[in-house]
Amino acid sequence: MARERLRLGVNIDHVATVRNARGSAWPDPLRAALLAEAAGADGITAHLREDRRHIRDADMEALHAGIGIPLNFECAATAEMARIALRLKPHAVCLVPEKREERTTEGGLDVAGDVARLTDYIAPLRAAGCRVSMFVGHDARQIEASARIGAAVVELHTGHYSDLHAEGREAEAETELAALREGARLAHSLGLEVHAGHGLTYDNVAPVAAIPELRELNIGHFLIGEAIFLGLGPAIEEMRRRMDKART
């Protein structure tokens, strides 16, 4: 398989986390998104959580109106989020599991256990022209169910791989990486576009970026943290460089 250029989606949620810590208007997530766009990001991801802990409704409005690259609207599969997505009609809607008590998204969506509801849920989003993505683990049942309900994309959860890599558990990380590779092959064979993300850093991104079926990585927390030291533009440019190197 020819390895196409891998797109980079930059998640700007944690710019809003810093802003909300002081209850002020700064730093502005839209400004961060525009800097990311100028640095070569191919898309912007923002997760509108039910508790609005970081991104808020006004941020989604501003991002939708203000950026010139695709907006990936991450959300839980609730009626409220469907109403917002159908009003904004972003380029993509990525459905994720969400628990109020979690610090970050802890796993993939159980598509296989909720096929009927999710089929009905995504139908109007698809009709409105949104590319619907399922944030799932590499389990074959979840990938197959995502294809069955009519999703266009699966985004494979790389959090467990990233944690194992960070802990120096190299053999287990390699086993998890092999499972991600197999999941990507299966998804591609079913006609799904394959993305990946969660916990990716400069140190662990290359083996994931090298998976030939992948078309996009979505990376946020690490890049926003690295921006403290390098600036957001250079942080993104370095990630872009490492992704491109992995593809060659």
Tell me about this structure:
With 248 residues, this protein is α/β, with parallel strands linked by helices. The protein has one domain (8-247): TIM Barrel (Alpha-Beta Barrel), CATH 3.20.20. Helices cover 49% and strands 17% of the residues. The protein contains 11 helices and 8 strands. It has helices at residues 13-22, 29-38, 57-66, 79-88, 115-127, 140-149, 159-166, 170-189, 205-209, 221-230, 232-247, and strands at 7-11, 43-47, 71-75, 92-95, 131-136, 153-157, 193-197, 214-219. An 8-stranded parallel barrel has the order 1-2-3-4-5-6-7-8, surrounded by 6 helices. It starts with 6 loop residues before the first strand and ends with a helix. The relative contact order is 0.15. The mean pLDDT is 95.
Q: How would you briefly describe this protein structure?
A:
The protein has a single domain (8-247), classed as TIM Barrel.
